[in-house]
Amino acid sequence: MNDTPSPPVKLVDLTRIHEPLADEVLAGIARLVDTNAFIGGRAVAEFEEAWALWCGTQFAVGVANGTDAIEIALRALDLEPGAEVVLPANTFIATAEAVVRAGLTPVFCDVEPRSLLATRETMAACVTDRTAALLPVHLYGALCPVVEIRALADEHGLRMVEDAAQAHGARRGGIGAGALGDAASFSFYPGKNLGAMGDAGAVVTNSAEIDRAARLLRNHGARDEYVHETFGFNSRMDAFQACALSAKLPHLGEWNEQRRAAVTVYREALGDIEGLNLLEYGSDEDPVWHLFPVRLPFRDPQRRDEVRRRLAERGVETKVHYAVPVHLTPAFAAWGSGAGQCPVAEDASERMVSLPLFPGITGAEQERVVDALRSALAEVGS
């Protein structure tokens, strides 16, 4: 009899992605070492071309990380300093950080309860005569209603930047992430659907003007060496990351399908748990499930922590995306109006738990997650 405990079910297991690609990635890195082309160069240019093609945009600009990508996209629009940018409170704090770093004013809108995404209605409620741009965030691998939000922007003469850090390959109504914004930002943080082996990001756009501005901004404002046309900073994608991303990109479609299949298993297995709330999307929405968050039957962060502790005891890793809406964080208190400003986001933040999800997760692992969640909820009580 083997009493060895089973290894934990990780929230994200990158080993299953990287092991089959190790030889290809290492060969690419060896070529870079031979040529000493570590910053920019052919490897980055080739990935930029491939990523633009994948996104269906004319241009892609590789940058150092996803946070810089948002800031660069906003700066490339040349908005009035201090102008307002509407973004959802339910997002990672980097979205709001980039707005402030770009010299703009964040205005936090709520999300709708079905998908926990910003909509035309939630964003419109925050538009004023000081608004310059809308910044919808495609969270959990699903797209916001971009057609409607684009129409809102056009009606008010606003610019639109899409935060697509979690939406590599997602579509809605046949439209992909980054297709309708003036620009869109992507993160290639290692755990993303398409992740680097370090930090990296990209700005995509169909505007030659924005593309040119983004390329200047990422490289100290210079196109040619020591000819600095504008204020910029150092946010260049390194060639090692471009090499890794180019090796992984051909597999992104397959990995997204594996995520969808795993979510189908979860939804069927969890559907009878009373009070457990799963995200809902329409028939025209095709999410890529970067995360699989569930809302617990109770709004109580301490009881949620107890559920997570019991899951961990059973070898199931979890995380909360996100435990505090951005407008309630100390860092952004000056830009919010306190509790009650975004009630749907606030409610979700106190119920949410993300379950393990990654390409290659097995049916046995998912069964273990489901059984552990059922037991933890029964023990803690709903």
Q: What is the terminal separation in angstroms?
A: 37 Å
Low-confidence stretches: none
Q: Shape from CA axes?
A: globular
CATH topology of the largest domain: Aspartate Aminotransferase, domain 2
Order of helices and strands: HHHEHEHEHEHEEEEEHEEHHEEEHHEH
Tally of alpha and pi helices: 13
Précis, in short:
The chain is built from 13 helices and 15 strands. The protein is of the alpha/beta class and 382 residues long. Helix 3 packs across helix 9 and helix 10 packs parallel to helix 13.
Q: Can you walk through the features of this model?
A:
Helix 2 packs antiparallel against helix 9 and helix 3 packs across helix 9. Strands 1-9-8-5-4-2-3 form a 7-stranded mixed β-sheet, sandwiched between helices. The radius of gyration is 21 Å and the shape is globular. 38% of the residues lie in helices and 14% in strands. With 382 residues, it is of the alpha/beta class. Strand 4, helix 7 and strand 5 form a beta-alpha-beta unit. The mean pLDDT is 96. It folds into 2 domains: 234 residues, Aspartate Aminotransferase, domain 2; 130 residues, Aspartate Aminotransferase, domain 1, CATH 3.90.1150.
